[in-house]
Write a structure and sequence with these properties.
This protein is mainly α. It has 19 helices and no strands. The radius of gyration is 23 Å and the shape is globular. It is found in: Cell membrane.
Length: 502
């Protein structure tokens, strides 16, 4: 049985989930979020192009540095509440105490407002483009926190509509206009940051509509307190900072230990990973509130079904990408120029690592939704330590490949540790029938054909691209065609909890 945090005294657990209900909701939310994330990704590429061509190399470098500082500072100002503002509203509603949600939101959002104002003031002192962005930091931090709270009500529409579509669209429109009129770096920075303001305003309106007119909170909160909220959030805040460091320290170390060309080689070789992260984020955010509810009520069957089905969909969506990039690495790298041709081994290492990571599913989120945020923190810190030690050891000898090996070790640490922990503490694992079928199907339709094609044709990008395109189209047809008769184990019929075999 799932071991969840203790049920609050006097709470009324909500049971009796309708067959197929959780998975239909997850599918709707996941598909919508995936579409929104795809738009965000495309808009991000458009933003990069506009800034690079509108500001030149020096100006673009300053812009990207300033926005990176802004993103990190925003993450710090959120105080780890993005998970808490999904976990606690979902948990309180599942336990039959929705009247406590308003108090929960105040406990989480007010400190974020204060922290974001203080962080913005600190950035203001830095000067330059960072100071231009600083006044908008509270809107960015609060918009993320408010939209997280709407997901606690099982609503993905505000996140998709406002954060995934509206904000990037406004950024593109503003930057495109400035590109046409040759705007200054300061104007570019403002055009990128200001869309967070309407995102916050619309997010607040959506949250108010979802919260409605809640009953007054009882005098006895029944186990939910500000201390409980922040005991859950504090490790997530520290883990968030560590995660940001984990995502950036490898590039910094490559540049410092092997030079800027090696850092560029490493960055280009691993750029494809972002696409898989969009899919993971889309599915995870759709599953998150329902998983919190099932763990709060001790419903092991629903929790297992959610985790295994979400992992199945993640593998089904991402393994073809990773297998194709690994198999046709020379073609992928040729898109960025001939001087990146030597990074094929790096690409293969990172693709293989992501195959393992996606097969573990959203394992860190499962651990967090079960209340084990301290375990999450320990895992991220361990992964960060592995990255630093491996990079310092391997980069001087192997260059960018050493960084790829270090990242692989860190990603495996950050996935296999929590996988063992949820297996021990919660008796959960992601390897249901659907996950196994999805993995085998992807290997059969994309992995094996790509490997055979590369062996036969060789590594010449032009010839390999032509042959690979034909083989990939045939594989995609076979993939879709095979998925239909296998739709039941793949979870495309949305059966009720308990249908999938472990």
């Amino acid at each position: 049985m799932v071991t969840a945090p203790a049920t609050q005294a006097g709470a009324r657990p909500v049971r009796g989930v309708a067959p197929g209900g959780p998975m239909r909701g997850v599918a709707r939310g996941g598909l919508a979020n995936l579409a929104g994330s795809a738009f965000t990704g495309a808009a991000g590429l458009g933003t990069t192009w506009l800034v690079a061509h509108g500001l030149g190399a020096h100006g673009a470098g300053g812009f990207f540095t300033a926005t990176a500082v802004f993103v990190v500072a925003t993450g710090v100002a959120k105080l780890g509440t993005q998970t808490s503002l999904v976990y606690w509203p979902a948990r309180l509603r599942a336990l039959g105490t929705p009247e406590l949600v308003g108090r929960c939101l105040r406990i989480g959002l007010v400190p974020v407002a204060v922290a974001s104002v203080l962080t913005g003031a600190a950035l203001w002192q830095a000067g330059g483009l960072v100071a231009v962005l600083a006044p908008v930091l509270p809107a960015a931090a609060l918009s993320d926190a408010v939209l997280a709270a709407t997901r606690g009500y099982r609503s993905m529409r505000p996140t998709v509509g406002y954060d995934r579509i509206l904000r990037p669209a406004l950024q593109l429109a503003g930057l495109g206009t400035l590109w046409l009129v040759h705007g200054s770096p300061e104007a570019f920075a403002l055009a990128w940051a200001l869309p967070y303001v309407p995102t916050l305003a619309l997010g607040v309106r959506a949250l108010r509509a979802l919260a409605g007119h809640s009953a007054a909170a009882p005098a006895d909160p029944g186990g939910f307190t500000a201390r409980a909220f922040w005991e859950f959030s504090a490790p997530r805040a520290l883990a968030g900072v560590a995660q940001l460091a984990l995502q950036r320290v490898d590039v910094v170390l490559v540049a410092a230990l092997a030079g800027l060309p090696a850092a560029a080689l490493y960055t280009v070789a691993g750029r494809f990973v972002i696409a898989g992260q969009f899919v993971n984020q889309a599915i995870s955010q759709a599953v998150q509130p329902r998983l919190a509810e099932s763990l709060a009520t001790g419903d092991a069957e629903v929790a297992r079904t959610l985790y295994q089905r979400a992992t199945c969909w993640l593998v089904l969506a991402t393994w073809p990408l990773y297998l194709l990039v690994a198999g046709y690495a020379p073609v992928y790298l040729a898109l960025f120029g001939g001087h990146y041709a030597g990074a094929a081994t790096i690409t293969a290492v990172l693709a293989a690592t992501m195959l393992v990571a996606t097969a573990c599913g959203m394992v860190d989120m499962v651990l967090a939704m079960a209340g084990r945020t301290r375990w999450n923190l320990g895992n991220v810190v361990a992964a960060l330590a592995v990255t630093v030690v491996a990079d310092v050891t391997l980069i001087p000898r192997y260059g960018a490949l050493g960084a790829a090996l270090g990242l692989a070790a860190a990603v495996l640490t950050n996935n296999l540790l929590p996988l063992a922990q949820i297996g021990y503490a919660l008796r959960l694992h992601p390897f249901g029938a659907g996950t196994r079928v999805a993995g085998l199907l992807a290997v059969a339709c994309f992995g094996v054909p790509a490997l055979v094609t590369r062996i036969v044709v060789g590594d010449r990008p032009t010839v390999l691209a032509a042959a690979g395109a034909a083989v990939t189209v045939a594989g995609a047809v076979g993939y879709v065609g095979a998925a239909y008769p296998l739709r039941r184990p793949l979870g495309l019929l949305f059966p009720g909890p308990g249908k999938e075999k472990s």
